[in-house]
Amino acid sequence: MEITKTQIVEYARGLGATLVGITPASRWDEYDEVEDPYRPASIWPETKSVIVLGVPVLLPILESTPSINYVELYDTSNVLLDQIAYRLAVYLTENGHGSIFLPRDAYGDIEILVRKPFAAFSHVFAGKYAGLGTIGYSHVLLNKKYGPRVRYVSVFTNLELEPDLVIKKELCIKCCVCQKLCPSQAFITRDDQIIAKMNKKACAKHHAQLRKEHRYPCGICIKVCPVGEDREIFNSKDIKVYLEEKEAICRNPDDPRYKRWVHLRKHGSNGDRLF
Ligand code: SF4
Ligand code: SF4
């Protein structure tokens, strides 16, 4: 049975996807930004379209990072994404359109990322080509509604589908708040482009430490980014609160602006630091 784009979007939403975007596999060749082995057609030559699915990271929980509460949110969203993608791939295959999914993360352990900090496939570029956002300074996809606070997964299908439009206007305002507050100082600004040079190894090493403390991942660069309408929804628009956080908590862990995050950080994980 021929499946339409509308049916795919409705099916994916019914499974729990909040964002759904579609790109032809040919956009990887058109934009020529991603090395050949990392393109969908290299990974599975039958691929005609890539369906990118996203679920939001809820800001007030993310704000408590590093905390077990954020770990649980992260793990839950990852399991949900893989399930949505797997079920969508099976649904399409059952209807005669061969499909596979690429899991949202694909590494056996954080120590492997320290040695080999690159994924086999980038959902960030897939999301850009599927019209879900633009790539910001910190290498994440910025979405109009949720900024960088979205987790993504991709389904490759041999079905040709009507694509979504790529967003032309950059959403990143290059404020560099993510750079200032990154605990591993992983970003170096480049004057000729928005996307920073990134020390992925330094970021992975920081994550390895957080993993030992049972409060992985870090997420500070996505927490502090001012882009996203979710800031309005959660009434959390004051970026100064993040810039002053570390010093204020050092001075007074009971500072009323941070008390709720400190409370969550004190429970369920091994770390002693309160920021
Ligand atoms: S924090 Fe600022 S520089 Fe970093 S991604 Fe967001 S808008 Fe861009
Ligand atoms: S996840 Fe944390 S350590 Fe890694 S780049 Fe973002 S802020 Fe820096």
Automatic annotation (TrEMBL):
Residues 163-192 form the 4Fe-4S ferredoxin-type domain. InterPro entries: 4Fe4S_Fe-S-bd. Gene3D superfamilies: 3.30.70.20. SUPFAM superfamilies: 4Fe-4S ferredoxins (SSF54862). PANTHER family: IRON-SULFUR CLUSTER-BINDING PROTEIN, IRON-SULFUR CLUSTER-BINDING PROTEIN-RELATED. This is (Fe-S)-binding protein. The lineage of its organism: Bacteria, Bacillati, Bacillota, Negativicutes, Acetonemataceae.
